Automatic annotation (TrEMBL):
GO terms for cellular component: membrane protein complex; plasma membrane. SUPFAM superfamilies: P-loop containing nucleoside triphosphate hydrolases. It comes from Mesorhizobium zhangyense. Coiled coil: none annotated. Belongs to the ABC transporter superfamily. Macrolide exporter (TC 3.A.1.122) family. GO terms for molecular function: ATP binding; ATP hydrolysis activity; transmembrane transporter activity. It holds the Pfam family ABC_tran. Keywords: ATP-binding, Cell inner membrane, Cell membrane, Membrane, Nucleotide-binding, Translocase, Transport. CDD domains: ABC_MJ0796_LolCDE_FtsE (cd03255). PROSITE patterns: ABC_TRANSPORTER_1, ABC_TRANSPORTER_2. This is ABC transporter ATP-binding protein.
Amino acid sequence: MTEKPLITFDQVWKTYGEGEASVHALAGVDLSIRRGEFVAIMGPSGSGKSTAMNIIGCLDTPTSGRYGFLGVDAGRLDRNRRAVLRNLYVGFVFQGYNLLPRTTAAENVELPLIYRGAPASERHKLAAEALEQVGLLGRQGHTPAELSGGQQQRVAIARAIVTKPTLLVADEPTGNLDTARSHEIMELLTRLNQDLGLTVVMVTHEADIAAYAQRTIGFLDGHIASDQLNRKAA
């Protein structure tokens, strides 16, 4: 039996405003992403890529159509139930790292576990494991100011994977990094995708960064304009 997709869009529309002032950020999008895929989403400003990412991450809901996540019609869940879905199954990585400045790397990584009510001993163990997975085992006690930009993004990735999510949503994860650090981060995300079977959905505007993904989806004017496998990843 063929495994059902992890993520499905079935005629998803997202409309902002009303009447003549309405704008269709997404206009009847159909999409499926399998468990374990690494997908890059690209497109110019206003193309719908960020709206699609927000729906995929259960941060927003469609105006109409169906968004399926793990077989659940996530688009019809209320805010609290979507929050539960996010906390259990989704990790997020952002362009700006979003680390607490006066908090150590280990304490930043532990935050999602604190929200879950995990005991201290479990938090310390899982945070150490996550930091080791991103190559920062010796940096647990460092604050963000004591880390380079690439290291800060590694802490952010460790925080995103510490709960062992099914899906990692990455929004311009290399946007604040130089070329060398950008490729290091992409090699890390590729390894996590392969070694952990982690599904990764990444928004980027850089073609060389998208090339690390197995598949690139291009958005334009609220529609999917292209959907292709990448040679580098193949």
